[in-house]
Structures are given as structure tokens and as C-alpha cells.
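Morning - nicotinamide-adenine-dinucleotide inputs below, output right after.
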Amino acid sequence: MTSSSATNATRRTAATSTLRAAVIGSGGISAQHLGYLRDSARADLVGVCDLSPITARYAGEFYGTAGIFTDAAQMIAETRPDVVHVLTPPSSHVGLALSCLDAGAHVLVEKPAAPTLPELHTLLDKAAAADRHVIENHNYRFNDGVVALADAVAAGRLGTVREVEIRMALDIRSPGGRFADENLPNGIHKMPAGVVHDFITHLTYLLDHFTSHVDWQRIAAGWSNHGGGDLFTVDDLDCTLIGHGPEGAVHGKLRFSALTGPEQFMVTVRGSEGFGVTELFQPYVELNVPRAGGGQLSPIANHIANGRTRFGEGFRNVGRKLMQRSPYHGLHQLLDDTYAALADGTEPPVTPEQMIRTASIIDAILDPEVRV
Ligand SMILES: NC(=O)c1ccc[n+]([C@@H]2O[C@H](COP(=O)([O-])OP(=O)(O)OC[C@H]3O[C@@H](n4cnc5c(N)ncnc54)[C@H](O)[C@@H]3O)[C@@H](O)[C@H]2O)c1
């Protein structure tokens, strides 16, 4: 299915830096990408494609493009996009992204960009040869809470980073959920880490964000199927990484649990001087750092100083809550930074090196040799 007038009829008047954007896969996550593309002056949505005609038509009509397709190759040929968003299930990412690069487009691909490191290299090599960019969606790196922790680290407020823990709790076995329905096959079950593979990229790029300088030397990964049965290969990950950075030992912890509640996504960074925590599903940031001027206060003054800090953090957290920023606000920031970079010819905010380090860690923790 296509709209013959797709290429020109609905094109908005574009500033010189406006890039032509197309989307492959208009399922769940596409609402975030398409919402950005509809609202941004940096992008002109020229096409939407989904294997399901009704899904593609709904997305095209709702987000304002007459370029509605069920065949990705046809959409790319007819709309000639500068950027294609690949938002399909993970097993199809590499093939679709390669064909977008062949057509001369940059590719913004949902995580995981590729199921394994060698396949990611294939993609990145092709992009380099075509002088195009492949950008994997590392959206949570751009959430306010993670930015606040990264700023605190950069300012030296935590001292030397010594431990990073990324913890996600999701009720993926919920009977009404999209992963647990035996009658609704979901390709994610066939990924190397099953359903957990759908989330592990998030855990890993966040770890790497705070430890990019670390050489991980010892890894132990406990993959479990606590809920049993054949549908889920695993539903739990408990992984410890121990490595060395320029300033000594660093520990990493990646945790995915389907058993604990409430659903949460927590990032904790511990340094030699203090620590910071953020919750990405709820707007929450807490910093526990030495006071300006350093040194210990007497115990009572210390309690007062801590109370004031907590009060200030609480006030800011209420503000974040009232702002009702969705957990996907980082995705919109990433897209905006990416479109700005592509228009300016500068390096996009997610680099090949970050993608390679992320995929390397995932491959390493999937290695049967490190299983406990
Ligand atoms: N970054 C995030 O926070 C985040 C959140 C959710 C999902 N995701 C990722 O986004 C991707 C998609 O997830 P989803 O939840 O939107 O899945 P979904 O199943 O809701 O949607 C995928 C859509 O792609 C379509 N599709 C499949 N193959 C296609 C093809 N060859 N051509 C055109 N359309 C095709 C399907 O018909 C479906 O409508 C996954 O990689 C997932 O891990 C990322």
C-alpha cells in the first residue's frame, strides 16, 4: 500500500537544515519518534511504513504524512529520506538498517541495533564506507536524572567513580503483558537473552556512560528463569563486573528482576566521596555528596546540613513530578541532538565507540563461560 502523492504533497515548508525523515515500524515505541518528528522543525516526516496496513495508515494520518507504506524498500525509493528510524523488532534491525544505508540515508535504530557485536560491526563498517551515521537509541542517557548524575561526576562531586549499579524491575510475566501471551508470539523470546534482551541495552549503555574508561576484567552473570516454563528462556539477570580504570578498581552491577516491585529503573553511582541515585520511571534524583568546603561537621550540624540538602532535593523532585515529564523525555532530547548534529555535519550524540562498548559488554555477559 502506498500513497502515490507521498513524496511531495505533504512536505512541510522546510528550513535549510530540515531533514527528510521516514519511519519503519509504527508500533509501540514509534509514538515517541513520530511525536518528535511531527513537532520538530528539524525534521519533515515524509513516510511511515508498517507491515500492518491499518497500523501504517493510523500512524500516517495521526502524525501527518500521506506517505503511507507497507514495504520499506518502496517507501525509501519513493520518499528519498535523509534519515530513517528503524523501529521494528530487534531481529529485523540489521537487514533494514543496511538497506537504508544502501539508499544513502542515516539510520536511527532502536536498541539493540544488532543482536551481536559482529553484526553491529557489519552495520558500522557499512555506515563508515557510505559516509553515513548509524545511531542506536540510548535514550535514558538523556533523561534529566542521568544528566544530573553525570554532571555531578564531571564536577568531581562524587570523587572517583568506584561503583555503578543499574537496576530494572519489570513485571514482564504479567498475564496481560505483551511478552507473556502464548497466543501472541513475540520474536524477542528468540533473542540470545530472551525478553531480558529487550532491556539489557539500556542497562549496559548506562553502565558504560559512567565507566567508559574501565577495562572490565572479571565478569560473572547469573541468568535465571525463576518463573519457569518454556516461553521465557530467562526472566532475571544478576551480573557483576570488576575492572580497572585509570584511578583503580571499579565495580559494576547489572540487575534485571521480574520478581521485585514496584516497577523501577534505578541508576546508582558511588564514588570515593559521595553517591547519587536516580529513578527513571519516577522523576527522582538524590545526591549525597560532601558539603562545599569539605570536612566533617559536628554530628548535630551534620544532621542539619543533610536535612537542608534533602529538603532541597525533595523540592526539586516535587517540581519534576509536577512537570509530568514522561520517562521518554530523554528520547526526545536524543532525537533533537541527533538531528542537530546530522544537519550540522557534526558527531551525533551516540557514537560508534559507545555502541561497540555496549555490545561488547552484552556479548561478554552472555558468554556461557561467565555464567554462574
Ligand atoms: N528505547 C526505548 O525506550 C524502547 C522502548 C520500547 C521499545 N523499544 C524498542 O523498539 C523496537 C520496537 O519495539 P515496539 O515495542 O515498538 O514493538 P511493536 O511490536 O509494538 O512494533 C513493531 C512494529 O514493527 C512492525 N514491523 C515489523 N517488521 C517490519 C518490517 N520489516 N517492515 C515494516 N514494519 C515492520 C510491526 O508490524 C509492528 O507494528 C524494539 O527494538 C524495542 O526493543 C525501545
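Note: Residues 19-136 form a domain with the Rossmann fold fold (CATH 3.40.50.720).

O.
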